[in-house]
Amino acid sequence: MQQFSGRAAAPGLAQGSVVWFAETACGKTPQGTPAQELEKFRLAREECTRRQAQLYQAAQEQAGEEAAAIFELHGMLLQENLEEYVRPYIEQGKPAAEAARLGMREVGALFAALDDDYMRQRSEDMAELGEELAAAIEGGAAPTLSRPAILAARQLFPGQAVSLPKGLLLGVVLQKGGAQSHMAILARSMGIPLIFCPEAGPDWHGRTALLNGGTGGIVLDPDEARQAAYAQSARALARQTALLESYRGKPTQTANGQSVALLANIGGMADLPGLQISDAEGVGLLRSEFLYLESPNWPTENAQYAAYCAALRALPGKPVTLRTFDLGADKTAPYMHLPACANPEMGCRGLRFGLQNPHLLKTQLRAALRAAACGPLGIMFPMVCTPDELDKALTLLEECRAELTAEGTAFGKAAVGCMVETPAAVLYAAELAKRCAFLSIGTNDLHQYTFASEREGEALYAAADPALLRLVGMTVQAAHVQGCRVNVCGQLAADPAATRALLALGVDGLSVPPGQVLAMRRHIADITV
Ligand code: PEP
Ligand code: MG
Predict the structure, then answer these.
(1) Which neighbouring-strand residues pair with 196?
(2) CA atoms within 13 A of residue 90's CA, in its CB half-sphere
């Protein structure tokens, strides 16, 4: 018996024998000239277009009209002039498959700005379509099943999942993918548990597995005791799902009646569908870096405006807090030409980088102010260390307001806040709070800079070490004196073991991954502070 702990992406339980889907690279050819790469793209597009009608039919039968609409949409999108988005990447020397991925992401950003709700919500389909085109270029084969089984593979596209005979797909384990990918959304609507587990491999083929798509737990070759436990989990899961659903639409309150704002963190357009089903009361942290990292060049004001409006439309009327770019450190792209630095985590990053490149920060601030006319957008500056830095950022914001006014461009009022991610920001909390409507504690960085212990490395100190909690308490006290609210948006906000302590310290809001909102609301309801 072997046990694995993967990333849960679609809930449900499955028991069955594993079929490993080995992708072939039959069509994969070495990179050719740009003209040859363009031809590969055109052929792949024709092939994908042909498949959409069949997939639509299959999805309608297996998962209903809503899931089938993905393929109708893909078919429609393939009719569009996609080549103009892909060709520039090929001309820059990228292979066709990569150019298809990049070009489709670019179209996705435009798509997010469309007026039609349905089209906008499905903007991530573009990235998925890019993957499908890339797979067609690289020659991926389709999986097949002849009996009920759990499918394991490196990667799977929605089209491949619905093309399997109805009822035979018990569950899916993939090495690669995101919990908010369309494959995950489709798996959820098909009621099929999905787990991402990098350890899955061809040696799993033919072995019996138990999957728990809610926890990410996988057991290979289970003994009798495990099988009995599985049956018990099936019963418990049914009860748990019903219980969490009963918290949907309810206010977030502790057992003794303390209200807490329960918000969600999002890191890109792909998170919007998950956000919409999360029941979050707003977005506490929109990590805007995705726009910069997914783009071949600095994103334009209009592209940013479209993306921020799309985030606002995902939760109509609810607050969305946009964090200005926290670039630098590990978040860089080649076009940025950031100066080399011995210790990038402590180098030119976050607001420091913005202040050294005010034209870039102002482009983002203008886009944000314009988007604030579409809904309650907040603007938050990252990696602030001193009040002086914040003042400089606020001056740039004021300049943007003045420019937009002079141009006659519509913009909205945006609540302004800053992140507290450094010990210096904690010590300056009173001064920062005087200038802000809210502070948001980024415990991920605050932990690393407090303990001189890198966040990606081995956990040397507890996430909720009392030293960190004291810093949270100091921030809350100083901010509340100024009438300024304090949220926590680092990972600690989603750690049930820390919730009671954070609420007892007076934290006003918690911002957690979208999928944890209902579970956190339920957890908070049991806490007395
Ligand atoms: C943090 O530092 O806690 C935070 C929320 O920001 P990020 O994780 O994006 O650095
Ligand atoms: Mg941070």
Answers:
(1) 7, 174
(2) 23
Closest ligand to Cα 321:
1
The DSSP code sequence of 159-199 is HHHHTSPTT-EEEEEESS--TTSHHHHHHHHHT--EEE-TT
Tokens standing for 52?
Answer: 């959409």
Answer whether 0.90 is exceeded by the pTM: no
Which residues have a catalytic role annotated? 182, 489
Residue with the two structure tokens 């100091």: 474
Q: Is 443 in the pocket of ligand 1 (CB under 6 A)?
A: yes
Alpha helices in 315-442 (DSSP H): 350-356, 358-371, 387-407, 423-427, 429-435
Walk across the sheet containing 13-21 and list its strands.
Answer: 2-5, 217-220, 208-212, 13-21, 149-153, 169-174, 194-196, 7-10
Q: Tell me the CA–centroid distance for residue 433 and ligand 1, in Å.
A: 19
* Amino acid found at 335: Y
Residue with CA at minimum distance from ligand 1 atom 4 = 442
Are 48 and 78 contacting, i.e. CB atoms less than 8 angstroms apart?
Answer: yes
Q: Which residues of 282-304 are buried (b: 16+ CB within 10 A; e: fewer)?
A: bbbbbbbbbbbbbbbebbebebb
Q: What is the DSSP string of 7-66?
A: EEEE--EEEEEEEEE----TT------HHHHHHHHHHHHHHHHHHHHHHHHHHHHHH-HH
Atom 9, ligand 1: residue with shortest CA distance: 287
Is 350 touching ligand 1 by the criterion CB < 6 Å? no
Ligand nearest to the CA of 444: 1
CB 490 near ligand 1, within 6 Å: yes
| Predicted pLDDT at 1 | 92
The helix/strand/coil state of 511 is strand
Measure the CA–CA gap between 176 and 357, rounded to whole angstroms.
36
Measure the CA–CA gap between 310 and 324, rounded to whole angstroms: 16
Q: Give me the helices (H) in 271-386, please.
A: 272-278, 289-293, 301-314, 350-356, 358-371
* Ligand 2 centroid, distance to 518 Cα (angstroms): 24
Cα(387)–Cα(478) distance, integer angstroms: 14
The residue among 157, 158, 161, 131 whose CA lies nearest residue 145 is 161
Ligand 2 midpoint to CA 287 (Å): 9
At 294, which amino acid appears?
A: E
pLDDT of 104 reads 85
Distance in Å, CA 337 to ligand 1 centroid:
23
Any atom of ligand 1 within 6 Å of the Cβ of 328: no
How many angstroms separate the CA atoms of 383 and 420, rounded? 7
User: Ligand 1 in contact with 421 (CB < 6 A)?
Assistant: yes
Query: What gap in Å lies between CA 281 and CA 262, rounded to an integer?
Result: 6
- Summarised one tens digit per residue, pLDDT across range 163-184 is 777 678 999 999 987 654 667 7
β-pairing verdict for 438-441 and 415-420:
parallel
Low-confidence residues of the chain, pLDDT below 70? 23-29, 58-59, 61-67, 114-125, 139-142, 166, 178-182, 185-186, 188-190, 270, 456
